[in-house]
Amino acid sequence: MQDALLVFCAMIAALLLALQYDLFYFIDALSSAQRKISLAEAIFLTALLAAGIVTFIVRRLSDQRRDIALKVAAEMELRELTTMAMQDPLTGLLNRRALIAALETAIASPPANGSQYALFMIDLDHFKSVNDVHGHAVGDQVLEVVADRFKGAARPSDLVARIGGDEFAVLAYNVDRETARKIGSRFLESLTRTIGAGGHAHKVSLSIGVALIPEDGATAEEALRNADLAMYRAKERRNGLVFFAPNMNQQKQIA
């Protein structure tokens, strides 16, 4: 509204200036006295017009800067919300939603040269006792240390996620079975040392189930389910790392 008023004032000033000087007779048709008055009026009107234009430009630039600042702030807020929606707040790792999105993208783009993706489902054995005996605050400290060690064990291209209370997952790209086994071994080794939290040393062990993609899962849901089956088989056998096998589905149906 204020910008429109400034433009209106500038138009009025221009109109008065045009009326003051007839385009056909211009200043020659005026007497000397009129010329002096008209010159003063012209200077005033020109200054008024210039002031209006300058004010308008300054206001528009100010509005543009404000609009840009608001847009940048909105984009930053959106990025922060997106990050929060895809991130585990305790450990800073990816969350289940982000893992599923990455899985779906990976399955839609099968790896080349005969390689595969590997999905590791990792469960902390007997972690519940840490919470029960020492409290959830200490349990959270243990989880943070576990997350840091997992990040150190992962390759730069691997995605590490926390998908539940004491459940983690890793999506490894461009691997074969042997490479996947070595990656899993690094995660097992990362927790051979005790974890200090709450004034106590906590021993945490892992059970890991591995599903190879696309061999063991044509969809994200199937890959998660099969890796989960292998992980529970690892817990039953007290064997740290187990690869999914088709007969696990059959045994589950029989059970």
Automatic annotation (TrEMBL):
The chain crosses the membrane at residues 36-58. SMART domains: GGDEF. Gene3D superfamilies: 3.30.70.270. The keyword Ion transport does not apply. The keyword Nucleotide-binding does not apply. GO terms for molecular function: catalytic activity. InterPro entries: DGC-Regulatory_Protein, GGDEF_dom, Nucleotide_cyclase, Rev_trsase/Diguanyl_cyclase. Keywords: Membrane, Transmembrane, Transmembrane helix. Residues 115-246 form the GGDEF domain. NCBIfam families: GGDEF. PANTHER family: DIGUANYLATE CYCLASE DGCT-RELATED, GGDEF DOMAIN-CONTAINING PROTEIN. This is GGDEF domain-containing protein.
